[in-house]
Amino acid sequence: MNNQRANTIFIGVIAIVATVAALKIASSVMLPIFFAILLSFTLSPVVDGLTRIKVPRGISITLAILIIAGIGYLVGLFLFSSLNSFIDEAPKYYHRFEDITSQISGALNTNFAMELPENPMAEIDFTATFINSINSLSQNVVSFASAMVIVILSTIFLLLESPYIQVTIAKAFPRKAGKRIIIIMRHTIRQIGRYLSVKFLVSAMTGVFVWLFLEIIGMDFSLIWGVLAFILNFIPNIGSVILMAVTIIMGFIQFFPQPGPIVAVVVSMISVQIVVGNFLDPRMQGRRLNLSPIIIIFSLFLWGWIWGPVGMFIAVPITAVIKIICENVPPLKPIAMLMENGRKVSKNRRFI
To answer: Which ranges does the record mark as transmembrane (predicted)?
Structure first.
C-alpha cells in the first residue's frame, strides 16, 4: 500500500514537472490559447445577458468583441500619441537626470567628503539603450498584434461553442463524471468571469485616479502613467510597487528641486494604492477567489518564470482555476484548503 502511494506521488510529481516544461517550451502557442479562454470567461456573462433578451448569440458575441476592440483602439490611439511625445521628450529627461545626479553627487562630495564621480551614470550609454528598447518594443508590438488576432478568433469560437460543450461532455463521459465536470466548468466560468470583470473595472478606476491626480499636479504624460496603472493593477502586489517606483522617479526628475509637486506625487500615488488595495478592491471582489497571499506571490513568480512578464498578468486566474478544480475533486480538496487565505479560514473554522 505504501509502495503504491509512493508510486502515485512520484508519477504525480513527474506529470507536474512535464506539464510545466511543456507550457514553457510551447509558450508561443499556449499563451494566446490561455488568453482566449480567460477573455471568453470575461465576455461570457455579457454574451449570456444579451442572449437572454433575445439577441442572437452571433450578434451578442460580435457586440462584445467590438466593445473590447473599441475600448482597446481608443486607448491605443491616445497612448500612441502620448508615447510619440514621450519619445520626443526623452532626451530632455535624460539631460535633467544627468544634471540632478551631478548636483547630488557634488553636494555629497562637498558636505560629506565622499569621493563620488561627477556623473555616476556617465559610463552608461543611455542613447543606445533607449534605441534598443524602442526597437525591442516595436518587435513586441508586431508579435502582440499577431497574437491578438489569434486570441480574438479563438475567443469567438469558444463563445460560439460554449453552449454545446456541456452536451459534448455529457455524451463523452459517464453520467456521474460528466455531471461533476460540468459543475466544475460552470463554477470556474462564473468565478473567473466575475473576478476578471471586477478586476477590469477596478483597474480602469485606478488608471483614471492616477491620470486625474497626476494631471492636476501637472506631471507630464499623465495619460501614459494612467494606462500603466491600469495594466499593472492586474499584477497583484508587485504591479503597484512598480507603478509607484516609476511615477515617483519620473516626478522627481521633472519637478526637482521643487519639493511641493514631488511630495504631491508621492502622496497621491500612496493614497491611490491605499484606497484601491485596502478598500475598493476587497469590497468589490469580496471573498470571490479566497487565495492565500503566499500562494499569489508564488504563482506570480512561477508563471512569470514560465511565460515571462505576460505570465504574471494571468497568474492569479490560472491559480484560481487550479484551486476550483481541487475543491471539486475529493482527493484534491486538501490542496485547495492549503491554497486558501488563512486569515479568512481562521475566522470561519474553529480549531482545538
So the answer is: 7-23, 29-47, 59-80, 141-160, 238-256, 262-280, 289-306
